[in-house]
Amino acid sequence: MYVEGAAQPGSRTNPERRAQGTIAPFQYLAIVAQLAVLTVLLRQFQIESGGFLRLALLTFAGFAVHAVLPLRSRLPFFLALSLGGIVLVMNVWNAAWIVTIGLMLVGLCHLPIAFRWRSALLIVAGVVLAAMRARWVPAPVSDAIWPILGSMFMFRTIVYMYDLSHASRPASAVSTLAYFFMLPNACFPLFPVVDSEAFKRNYFKTDAYRTYQRGIDWMVRGVIHLLLYRYIYYELALAPAEIISPAMLVQYLVTNFLLYLRVSGLFHLIVGMLYLFGFELPETHHRYLLAASFTDFWRRINIYWKDFMQKVFYYPAVFRLKSLGMTRAMVLGTLWVFAMTWALHAYQWFWLRGTMLLAPQDVLFWAILAVLVVINGLIELRHPPKRTLSGADQNWRRLLSRAARTYATFWVICIIWSFWTAESVTSWLSMWSALRGEYTIKVLLFPSLILAVIILGTFESHMPRGKGTLRLHSHTRDLAVTVASMLVLIAVSVEAISTQVGPQFATMITSLRSGRLSRLDVAKLERGYYENLLSVDQFNSQLWEVYSKRPETWLDVRGTALKRFTADFGQMELIPSFASQTNYGTVSINRWGMRDQDYSETPPQNTFRMAMLGASTVMGWGVGDGETFESLMEARLNHDGPRGRYSRYEILNFGVPGYQPPQDLVSVDKAMRFKPNAVIYVATGRELSRAADYLAEVVHKRIAIPYAPLAHVVAKAGLTADLDDVTAARQLLPYRGELLASTYGLIAARIRAGGATPVFVFLPQVQAGSWDEETPETLRIAAAAGFIVIDLSNVFAGQSIESIRLAEWDDHPNAKGHRLVADRLYDAISRRPDILPARGEHQLAHR
User: Which long-range contacts (CB under 8 A, 24 or more apart) does 474-477 make?
Assistant: First the structure.
């Protein structure tokens, strides 16, 4: 067995290398202490997932043992720890499948047959596994394993086979398995393409203490990147439909590109964790925001990918084409690299998401970037840039010239990046209509900030340091920055400290401490629940993480024929006399198409009847029959409710999953047939946005709008069926308030015309935040429309999310959540004589 950098059984021991694998006791304690602080930091800011925190604890505890083992025992221990990490994150069954399939693939790499036959067998195995991933072939494995298995083998196998074909001495079995089953991989489907030779060659290459400290430095840097990403993601990011001015367009271009901080943050975390076990890998990113040309950008961003493409595709292509001349060979080699980058990007997307990425903007993005890099490369061939600026060459004119080139490169990258991440080419083109908007001083905000950062970064990177310059040793400086950064972040994460700075600062820190979805993804998640229209962006969205946690065996009403399509404005309704078994109980629909008991069309004598309108939470998504808050409240009213003129209460549930506010105009017409005394409309957030989205949808589908006020708003907004979704949403944006007011006004008017009392209840989502940003305006519009308004915004206050939501991948309330709502709504309504009849004398005496 042989691993470069480690003493192997039966091999000569390198005394210097052995010394480099050890650290002094006080250094060991310093590293362990920093890891303890880093654990607190990861916990305070909920970095990534609970699975990652468990893996980090395993990693840090494993380091404490690994660092004191004999050098020859460390690599086997790292492999054992890596396999244990897979079990910890994926569970025993899934881990067993990942390891079994992985061992099979590694075994194919080492079959004692010709290299071309081994490659062919690997391709066949890959095709079979891909068929299982795409569900073309039945597989006895969970879908949860494919993203992790793919990240371990889809690119690493290519690199490994390339190195096998060129290696003079094969690696040991332990080092090979350690390479494929790297410890951090269990939590990160998006994983850097680590080079197999670098993985072996750099094992305990230099001083162990410096290696460990650099790992901590990189992990802390990764956490900072992820927190910056969260701030941009939650506070600054815009949806394309929201762009209505030049300032907002500029903000969108910048923040959309800066969301890549998530990738750079994750890669720093991953490589930093590997450093704790002696793998001194190169940096993954190098100040990519300071790239002064497109070739410079390609060299700086995702360096591992660039090295992988250069090694496996570029150099072999240039070598074969050198007979055409080096310039032509380099141009064709570069174009070949970007063509393969596009193909491998789609290949990666398949293993992570289960579908191929064949969007035209993806093809065009890589083609445009290839052309820009080729042009830059040809310019650099004719006018080679100076790699370093030193001495007399390092004057302010050269630095300002570089800063100007960097600034221009940044904006071009932002523009083509926005094209890459756009939902469609049409929506991207429509985004630029915002340039016709009003120009204000705000349009200079982001350009000025970016210019300042680039100038400072350029001067800091290239200005010479004179002999008299006071500098700390780089290692000491990095240690001080790392420790100070962790302590400051932990301090501000404490509510008692952040509130002393100010309420806005405390609110921002609270936002950064959560791993919630942004308001942009909340809308996508809502669509995904009901329509399977989930859109997931390349780098900024966390939706796929939410959905990937949902077991394939989970049976809910999405997998049943709960709804049927109709030809009217509502588009869908619940199927009458329907019943289905789910993980949370039976879902039954009565003969009238309601999730409820079988009521008569005419109320029985002495019965106070209410109708309840709304979407999935009202219908009872996540609970069984009899557990919805509507059903619980009805039971309590009949047991404890006021007695007087009425001896019985009925609440008819007209909730339909996926219904948006305008669709309840259809529901209210159905409800009034049952002659209710009161009608309760339940809003659960984002009413303004959801109403506008639905109107854009029906116009696009050419569905007639039978309500004159809504048709009038659509006409004013200039909506037509041929507009794309983004443009339609943007044109409706100024009219959202008017649209919701018209919808509420029509609902309330129909209720009053039927002799009933209109009641508006605001019910928040289990996980508040992005859903509630439109709540104040919604409540104002509801009151102005004539509703009696009941605000249950704090109904879930003081409850842990885990105890009241349906599942980690589903934020609907569970049975406990419905009980809380039923109790609060009962208390609110029973005190309102303008909703319920007054109490009888015997009831008051009983009380």
Answer: 475/210, 475/213
Q: Where residue 844 falls among pLDDT bands split at 50, 70, 90?
A: very low
For residue 245, give the DSSP letter. S
Short-list 400, 426, 428, CA closest to 414: 428
Does residue 375 contact residue 331 with C-beta atoms inside 8 Å? no
Any alpha helices (H) in 110-239, and if so which ranges? 115-133, 145-153, 156-166, 173-180, 196-201, 208-231
Domain 607-837 carries which CATH code? Answer: 3.40.50.1110
- Name the percent of the chain in helix, strand, coil, to the closest 5: 60, 5, 30
Q: Is the pLDDT of residue 125 over 90?
A: yes
Distance CA 57, CA 66 (A): 14
Residue 132: partners with Cβ closer than 8 Å, 6 or more residues away: 138, 139, 141
The answer to whether residues 101 and 157 touch, using CB atoms and an 8 Å cutoff, is no
Of 365, 364, 240, the C-alpha closest to 725 is 240
pLDDT per position as a tens digit, 667-686: 999 999 999 999 999 998 88
User: 608 near 564, Cβ under 8 Å?
Assistant: no
**What number of CA atoms fall less than 13 Å from residue 451's CA on the CB side?**
9
Token digits for 253? 């271009």
Pairwise CA distance, residues 183 & 177, whole Å: 11
> Alpha-carbon distance 46 to 38, whole Å?
12
Query: 137: alpha, beta or left, given left = phi > 0 and alpha = psi -120 to 50?
Result: beta
- Give Cβ neighbours of residue 729 (< 8 Å, ≥ 6 apart): 239, 241, 692, 693, 696
SS3 state of residue 757: strand
Q: Six-digit token pair at 324?
A: 């055409």
What residue spans in the chain does CATH classification 3.40.50.1110 cover? 607-837
Q: Contact at 8 Å (CB) between 425 and 359?
A: no
3-state SS record for 441-493: HHHHHHHHHHHHHHHHHHHHHHCCCCCCCCCCCHHHHHHHHHHHHHHHHHHHH
Predicted confidence (pLDDT) per residue in 768-798, tens digit: 555 567 889 999 999 999 999 999 998 998 8
In 3D, which of 660, 753, 663, 764 has the Cα closest to residue 707?
663
SS3 206: coil
pLDDT tens figures, 133-156: 988 888 888 878 898 999 999 999
